[in-house]
Amino acid sequence: MRVLVAMSGGVDSAVAAARLVAEGHDVTGVHLALSKNPASYRSGARGCCSLEDSHDARRVADKLDIPFYVWDFAEEFHEAVVEDFIDEYRAGRTPNPCLRCNEKIKFAAVLDRGIALGFDAVATGHYADLRRSADGAVTLHRAADAAKDQSYVLGMLTQAQLSRCLFPLFDVEKPVVREEARALGFGVAKKPDSHDICFIADGDTQGFLSRHLDDAPGEIVDRAGAVLGSHAGTHNYTVGQRKGLDLRVPAPTGEPRYVLSIEPASRTVVVGSRGELAVDTLTGIRVTWTGAPVVGPWRGQAQYRAHGAPQDATIEAVGDGLVVALDAPASGVAPGQSVVLYDGDRVVGSAVIAEAR
Question: Fewer CB near the terminus (10 Å): N or C of the chain?
């Protein structure tokens, strides 16, 4: 099989490529250049798709004696991920840029180009399990390593995309992956995992947003509308936030206040008690099913953070969206986050949260 491996420059994609070579596949490595100015993106040990990473990926490809290319996806990445990130905060929502990158770049643009070039599949170093049935259907499941499971950030993939994907690390834990890399002589064997947002070089998300969005002042109010303070821009806040509110009026009970909602049109940030953060119903839009759409209410689990715990829920598709009724209240759920739906360890689909109440 001709396989295109997306090589980020980290240990996971390096071992994924090595495993495929060992299995006898015709493997080609590709690194994605996501910025026309690499210095503007995060670099060093905490990098992701940085200039250093491209060099690390090339060295691994040389050791494996496989072809290696760097593909320029800077324009696509800026439009689909960076601009989307800014627009979502402008609208008072909290996006997940890594999930959007998977959706729009790694498993759409790269897969499309790979297929056009004659490759049979695209592989990555994600920790997730793909199972193929006799009739050709593919189901996405959690990885064997629960601590590294990345099925959440793959929950937006369609059946057509999953059928062309390979995740060679589905059955191993991270220490084993590092040991395999060490045994193969890869310099990335001890390389730290990437963190934070790659296109915010200094890690200052609020500073980045302030440079791209107007610092329009507004009021911080409670649910009754009483003014408790002011702010320099709604993009500085997210639902569930407690620190940095700088309120001059203490709560009657002395309890800390949290951001309950963000209303960009009126430039208002609404705050309240921790108990007021609790929601039990999520409304989702931009629904993606990993297989056939599920008709009618069904019992499953909902996960709304990459490393969050799944919660039992009743899920029902309604028109073009869906409604998730959680068995137990959840806190800090923000519009713009993705909710990924599970049936046990199997990913059924995903949606972007439009409302949590």
Answer: C
The Cα-based distances of 194 to 150, 229, 353 in angstroms read: 14, 37, 26
Residue count of the chain, please give it: 357
- Ordered by where they begin, the domains of the chain are 2-125+168-190 (3.40.50.620), 214-273 (2.30.30.280), 277-356 (2.40.30.10)
Tokens of 272: 């309240």
DSSP secondary structure letter of residue 309: P
Asked about 165 being catalytic, the answer comes back as no
In the chain, helix, strand, coil percent, each to 5?
30, 30, 40
48, 49, 98, 198: the catalytic one is 198
Q: Which residues are annotated as a binding site for ATP?
A: 6-13, 32, 125
> In sequence order, what DSSP letters do the residues of 206-241 get, joined into one string?
HHHHHHHS----EEEE-TT--EEEEES-GGG--TT-
Look up 101 and say whether it is catalytic. Answer: yes
Give residue-wise pLDDT tens across range 138-192. Answer: 999 999 999 999 999 999 999 999 999 999 999 999 999 999 999 999 999 999 9
Choosing from 48, 49, 101, 165, the catalytic residue is 101
| C-alpha span between 341 and 301 (Å, rounded) | 6
Specify whether the CB–CB gap between 49 and 34 falls below 8 A.
yes
In the annotated binding site, the residues are 6-13, 32, 125
Of 41-45, 67-71, 222-226, 330-334, the range with the lowest mean pLDDT is 41-45
